[in-house]
Amino acid sequence: MKPKNSKNNKLKFLIIGLGSMGKRRIRNLLVNGEKNIVGYDIRQDRNAEAKEKYGIKVIKNLNDIPPSDFDAIIISTPPDRHGDYIRMALKLKKHFFVEHPTSDDGYKEIFSNKNLSIVKAPSCTLRYYLPIKMIKNILDQGKIGKILAFQYHAGQYLPDWHVYEDYRKVYFSKKTTGACREIFPFELIWLNWIFGSRVKEVRGFFNKVSNLQMKADDIILATVKYNNGILGTIIIDAIARKPYRTLRVLGSDGTLDWERFDSGIKLYSAKSKKTKTITVPKGHQQTGYINEEEMYNDEIMTFLKAISGKLKYPHNFADSRQLLNTLYALEKSQQTSKRS
């Protein structure tokens, strides 16, 4: 039976991984009124930091907490460790939320346990980001006509991601869990959502073009074709000295332009020959973080409501597998493409 999130029966959470995202998930739970939190990280300095900052209980070993002491698990480890903790959650029949993956390790077990009455939630943070929700509404209303094509660029210099730690020692500098490899399918979550379709064809390039001291590729150039005929180009990089999250959508009756750091959405009307700018309200940035907190709070609120049965979580592991398959297809396209 699913536990209910009520004043008399609060949920108990185990957060595995107390790096930047694990600490953020603690804040998300606290904002949503959930205070019964236990944290675990293999690094004792992170355990100590989370305990001091947020007053939560921490454990040095997962064997130190019996399964009866938590109802749900939040997995905020590096992506190459997700599978182990997914299997743990399934074995213990605990609700779980997991950050965005770079492999499908654990998915076989998820699909073979599809009848378990637990919530299995893969992260889809940007679907809760206010400007993206606004863009979705604009496109759904047909304000630029039929969507024909788009350009998208997300980039930021990798050493600026976590200025408080050496990027060379973090998972996003490794080949299999590299920043660009992680971000490409992560961005597709919301791109697929706003365009109401999935990628049918993809081709492009992964490369390392900078002098960053890592094995991971630092740029992806991809062209995509959606099932509904929309064409697009996507650039994901870890080399842009100025951060970007820039979208241009070409419609039959106009264009939409959005640059996340300009806090506005621009709509050009072919009929009036004028451009209208829609202001996007800014959210709250936690010190040391670039993205606003609100979308993460809302994402965890949805996870909580899914546990209580109030709504269905909007993104599932079949969706996530499809996104990973698009990533794998892109990698295969580079391996098999002809070079002159």
Map the helices and strands.
Elements (H helix, E strand, L loop, with lengths): L12 E4 L3 H12 L5 E4 L3 H11 L2 E3 L12 E4 L6 H11 L2 E4 L8 H6 L7 E3 L7 H11 L6 E9 L23 H17 L3 E9 L11 E8 L4 E7 L6 E8 L2 E6 L4 E6 L4 E6 L14 H14 L9 H20 L4
Parallel strand pairs: 1-2, 1-4, 2-3, 4-5, 5-6, 7-10
Antiparallel strand pairs: 7-11, 8-9, 9-10, 11-12, 12-13, 13-14
How is this structure best described in words?
The structure is a single chain. The protein has eight helices and 14 strands. The strands form two sheets. The chain has an eight-stranded mixed β-sheet. A six-stranded parallel β-sheet has the order 3-2-1-4-5-6, with helices on both faces. The chain is an alpha/beta fold. Strand 12 and strand 13 (about 265-270) form a beta hairpin. It has helices at about 20-30, 45-55, 80-90, 105-110, 130-140, 180-195, 295-305, 315-335; strands at about 15, 35-40, 55-60, 70-75, 95-100, 120, 145-155, 200-205, 220-225, 230-235, 245-250, 255-260, 265-270, 275-280. About 30% of the residues lie in helices and about 25% in strands.
